[in-house]
Design goal:
Strand order of the largest sheet: 8-7-6-9-10-11-12
Helix content: 25-40%
Radius of gyration: 22 Å
Largest sheet: 7 strands, parallel
Number of strands: 12
Structural class: alpha/beta
Strand content: 5-15%
Length: 337
């Protein structure tokens, strides 16, 4: 009989194929006993009953079902969940926390591609590249349109970061590469000293919106942050400013954004929307000053293996009795993006 703890991978089939190649499965098998069936996309199949009774560790990702009381009853020995993706909100339950089960996630690893995508978007926004590319389809060889979207360039820009989250603070650090940049941060929970150390200045949301050339949203989706950017907030943004949202669509009032973008005064770069995707008749699809991407900022394809590696690193630490690097604490879950 194996002395290794029994473990099971729980995620959809496409995610499993992307995140666990032979090298990662081999590494995992060196630490735990994967039994005859290392992976499943369901915890409700009758044939899994005996396997679940012995499982001590789950490695989860996109497609994991909610770990509610009924499912947890089938896993009496479960003591740790290593999530190979970002937020755990979709599957954790009060019953899971009540049982004292250890939970980690890959949010830090997932923050890397989102921050990279955001920084690239900020640089392109300084040149109005996305919008001018759309304008080219209309004006074609008449290049006079290049001056119609405001001043171009990335020197001396004011960049506003809403939410000093794990992604937000990475973006603050990345924008320091721009010459003479001023980085404003708005976050009611941020420590001013930490913001300053990263290169930012903590200000009110209103000041940030009034002064920033580019505003990037990195706040969590909570009841109190729903539609935090609405008519008033959009109205006080500078002419020709750019709003970037790679966080959650619910943070921006879609109707208010539609109304503001119709005016052509500001630009919106949206990787997330509310609803997602937008209905086919949304005016946002047709406006040249609006750029919509299909939720691609986060980890995709081979990038997702970075989160698998982070989970495996923490699993190794867990089995060695060391402190974990990415443990999710129930009390702090409401403040994370």
């Amino acid at each position: 009989m194996s002395l290794k703890p029994q473990a099971l991978l729980v995620m959809n089939s496409g995610t499993f194929a992307d995140q666990f190649d032979s090298a990662r499965l081999e590494r995992l098998a060196g630490m735990v006993d994967l039994g005859g069936q290392p992976w499943t996309d369901s915890l409700d199949a009758p044939e899994l009953a005996g396997r679940l009774e012995e499982v001590e560790i789950l490695l989860t990702s996109w497609g994991v079902p909610r770990l509610n009381a009924e499912r947890l009853e089938r896993m009496p020995k479960l003591r740790a969940v290593f999530h190979c993706a970002g937020t755990v909100r979709s599957f954790v339950s009060e019953e899971l926390w009540d049982r004292g089960i250890t939970v980690t996630n890959g949010a830090d690893a997932n923050a890397i591609p989102v921050a990279e995508f955001t920084f690239a978007s900020i640089v392109l926004a300084g040149k109005k590249a996305h919008v001018l590319a759309n304008d080219a389809r209309t004006f074609r060889e008449d290049w006079d349109y290049a001056t119609a979207r405001g001043e171009l360039g990335n020197i001396g820009r004011v960049i506003g970061i809403i939410g000093f989250s794990r992604i937000g603070r990475r973006v603050v650090s990345l924008v320091q590469q721009l010459q003479d940049v001023t980085c404003l941060v708005s976050d009611p929970h941020a420590n001013p000293a930490e913001v300053a150390a990263a290169g930012g200045s903590l200000v009110t949301l209103e000041q940030l919106l009034r002064e920033s050339d580019v505003v990037s949203i990195h706040a969590p989706a909570l009841p109190e942050t729903r539609n935090m950017i609405s008519t008033r907030e959009l109205d006080i943004m500078k002419d020709h400013a750019t709003l970037i949202n790679t966080a959650r669509g619910s943070l921006v009032d879609t109707a208010a954004l539609e109304a503001e973008c119709r005016k052509g005064r500001i630009t919106a770069l949206l990787d997330v929307t509310e609803p997602e995707p937008l209905p086919a008749d949304s005016v946002l699809y047709d406006l040249p000053n609006v750029i919509i991407t299909p939720h691609i900022a986060g980890s995709l394809g081979t990038e997702t293996r970075r989160m698998s590696d982070a989970a495996l690193d923490d699993l190794e630490r867990y089995l060695a009795g060391k402190d974990l690097l990415a443990e999710v604490v129930h009390a702090d879950l409401g403040l994370s993006a």
